[in-house]
Design a protein that fits this description.
The chain is of the alpha/beta class. The protein has helices at about 40, 50-70, 90-105, 115-120, 125, 165-175, 185-190, 215-230, 240-270, 285-300, 310, 315-330; strands at about 5-10, 15-25, 30-35, 80-85, 110-115, 135-140, 145-150, 155-160, 275-280, 305. The protein folds into two domains: about 5-125 and about 310-355, Nucleotidyltransferase, domain 5; about 130-305, 2-Layer Sandwich (Nucleotidyltransferase, domain 5), CATH 3.30.420. The protein is built from twelve helices and ten strands. The structure holds 5'-O-[(R)-(carboxyoxy)(hydroxy)phosphoryl]adenosine (KG4) and zinc ion. 5'-O-[(R)-(carboxyoxy)(hydroxy)phosphoryl]adenosine (KG4) binds near residues 185 and 281.
Length: about 350
């Protein structure tokens, strides 16, 4: 008997990317479309929630149509419809969830509300078979956490940031250095030309026990250096200064992340965990950070896995995949699911308790 792969449509609208993808349970990404709203937000130097929500509303239906078309899949052939149900900018999440519910209802398919962070957390399993448990470093624009991933819906948090997320620190640094928006890729590009040893920047939390992070002190130090270099008048930095400061900032972040991962790996391993260190989220697209984290994992007798950069930044393939994982376990959601602006991973609870769409937050 031939067992056909299950097919799920995924929708992502929690921030400034409108995305739709069709993925099947044999790990085939049949389509993966991401429409960035960068140009709409650029004049404001950051994401404006209302502009984001309206833009999702304008573009999502066409994008879904194209994703199905490219995949060569009709609604009737889907096994489920997944959408990011939170956490995120709530207007956008509403647009994605309502669209997914409508498609699911019209085609009589199960609806799956996916936690955006779980989308990132399980994305490495879309690329290759990867057993639970593994240690996850989740680094994005809104989050910086270390978690033991024990299964779908089953997370144990080891540490988190006490102030800013690491992606936020990249974005603010880019702004201070006049590198523009979005910040992360701009800092990475500038850092390639820079001297990481020129500026002595703080490494918050380095050498401390535990797996928490802090980035506000580093951000402030970057601001002071940038002001000193521009003689405090807010003038644009010389390209050489900007590159050196970007490289010094990135080196400080790399060292802190590696240190925290070292502690978390020790804790994970002492609890019997033998799985790898998985790095996910938008900041995991950064090649210099990946290289440093791979060294840290190796030093701990482990290895590092990071999805390809296009799967690290926000996309709908990871949402479709997380939907497939939940569908396989019967963890579908009711049409009464309410989008959640905040939805910590640990609130997903253990297997079973996450089913049915009841509010676990
Ligand atoms: O996961 P993501 O796409 O959206 C959130 O869920 O937040 O992450 C976005 C964050 C932004 O802060 C962006 O500047 C950062 O990821 N980012 C990077 C790089 N590419 C994206 N940070 C450092 N280096 C990069 N290459
Ligand atoms: Zn994300």
């Amino acid at each position: 008997m031939i067992v056909l792969p299950r097919i799920v449509l995924g929708i992502e609208t929690s921030c400034d990317e409108t995305a739709a993808a069709v993925v099947d349970s044999s790990r085939r990404i049949r389509s993966n479309l991401v429409l960035s709203q960068l140009d709409e937000h650029r004049p404001y130097g950051g994401v404006v929630p209302e502009i984001a929500a309206r833009s999702h509303l304008d573009h999502l239906d066409k994008l879904v149509e194209r994703a199905l078309e490219e995949a060569g899949v009709a609604c009737a052939e889907l096994d489920g419809v997944a959408a990011t149900g939170g956490p995120g900018l709530i207007g956008g999440v509403f647009v994605g969830v309502m669209t997914a519910k409508a498609i699911a209802a019209a085609s009589a398919k199960p609806f799956l509300a996916v936690n955006h962070l779980e989308g990132h957390a399980l994305s490495a399993r879309l690329m290759e078979p990867l057993d639970f448990p593994y240690l996850l470093l989740l680094i994005s624009g809104g989050h910086c956490q270390l978690l033991a991933v024990r299964g779908v819906g089953c997370y144990e948090r080891y540490g988190t940031t006490v102030d800013d997320a690491v992606g936020e620190a990249f974005d603010k640094t880019a702004k201070l250095l006049g590198l523009g928006y979005p910040g992360g890729p701009a800092v990475e590009r500038a850092a390639e030309e820079g001297d990481p040893t020129r500026f002595d920047l703080p490494r918050p939390m380095l050498g401390r026990p535990g797996a928490d992070f802090s980035f506000s002190g580093l951000k402030t130090a970057v601001r002071h250096k940038a002001m000193a270099l521009s003689a405090g008048d807010g003038a644009a930095l010389e390209p050489r200064d900007a590159a050196d400061l970007a490289a010094s900032f990135q080196a400080a972040v790399a060292e802190v992340l590696a240190d925290r991962c070292g502690n978390a790996l020790a804790r994970f391993q002492s609890g019997g965990g033998s799985g790898p260190l998985v790095v996910a989220g938008g900041v995991a697209a950064n090649q210099a950070l990946r290289a440093r984290l791979a060294e840290a994992a190796e030093a701990a007798g482990s290895r590092m896995i990071a999805p390809p950069p296009w799967l690290c930044t926000d996309n709908a393939a990871m949402i479709a995949w997380a939907g497939l994982e939940r569908l396989a376990l019967g963890l579908t959601d009711g049409f009464d699911f309410a989008p959640r602006p905040r939805w910590p991973l640990e609130a997903l609870g253990s297997l079973g308790s996450a089913a049915g769409g009841e509010d676990a937050a």
